[in-house]
């Protein structure tokens, strides 16, 4: 698939100033300036993220109310329920808050609840409130959901149950009648950092309780590994407090992880230090698989388990769920690609809507993302759900998927989501009409360039710059994530050194040179482009840098993203 290349601009004066202060490569200074790191002080904070730089939790609206209500519950020996969503952010939120409260309060008076994905759906559920009422619970601490649960929180109040809401999703026009609502995205909340995930908001509540009760910060920081996993999995910006928490959480994952996290890493065969990328591709899918394929409660049980052998048993369950998830994901993706391949009309559309009543509801969102990798257009994957059809939608970068679905709301029973992803339910008889209307709305509003994948390139460098000192500074820019992505480079006018080859009929082993400097690299699933290297013409290569270890010897290599003949771009 042809891709657009976009090289980011930079400010020469800022780069010169940074180079003077930091004494690092001008190319690194260009990247820092693009990330709003423009002074020595901001660079120091960036390269050495300090927990002391976290904001005072009491700056968050309703924080004092939340702390007072919890201390009241402690004093009155009330039973408390920790409630959260079934994804990684929700289960880590619940596990950290539940474990923390068990340490600072009576563990016999604390319980947790995760709604079942298919029986109860997303967010606060009536079944969860009824469970609390039956157990005599009078306070629910709700994490990663709740800010839009106006009716259900009102229902809980009629049963004598208070709610503390810890959420990071955009609030609606009406807020629930809760004892406290912690959400920095409230219009009148002065909290300086707005991009915390649900687990991050829960961590700020735990921080406030730690301060109010004069507890040791050691207790609080023992859950940083869970916070880092939530930040990585929820794809929130890797800036500000998120970056500080992820940085220190990764250190804990690599030095002293919770038994459940360690068990997952061992099952995945992790031998070296974990990065955020490892968390996203190794830990997050196994945790998410619990809710996709079965019951996410066992993900919380994994995280709160202190016994190593019991933790391994829960990890085995999640590992098995993930294996089932991968099989379902692979099979359904193949089915969906076959449907598209056999439908010439569908191939010409600017959207992709596919349906099969036998597909597993838990993986349709993943399949939608896979289809975008092949066809790069707004995609919806649907399956049967009870008497109706339900599924997940995913967008291409830059296009507001939620607004397009909103325009089709007259054909839907339910819908929800955000800019890049959404879920929807409709009657079977409306499928054809919805498919046509969704195509019509998207075709009328999406710019053609958004249907071509874009590669954002941070800087143009020469191979002569790729040295160990350069790579070491790149490593210090971790953890990477949205708004602090792994730097992408372009090197122009490179030639095959004569030794590049195709591996396993799919990949390219690059050995290329520029001005007498030769480097090696790997390009996955690029064999179809190999002819571009064979004609002895110069090419421009886009890549990231990583380290390759072979027989104990480490070398820096290119991880090639794309390449083109030099004259064509």
UniProtKB/TrEMBL annotation:
Keywords: Exonuclease, Hydrolase, Nuclease. SUPFAM superfamilies: DHH phosphoesterases (SSF64182). Residues 351-443 form the DHHA1 domain. Residues 79-231 form the DDH domain. InterPro entries: DDH_dom (IPR001667), DHH_sf (IPR038763), DHHA1_dom (IPR003156), RecJ (IPR004610), RecJ_OB (IPR041122), SSDNA_exonuclease_RecJ (IPR051673). Residues 457-562 form the RecJ OB domain. GO terms for molecular function: exonuclease activity. Belongs to the RecJ family. PANTHER family: SINGLE-STRANDED-DNA-SPECIFIC EXONUCLEASE RECJ. This is Single-stranded-DNA-specific exonuclease RecJ. It comes from Ferruginibacter yonginensis. The gene is recJ.
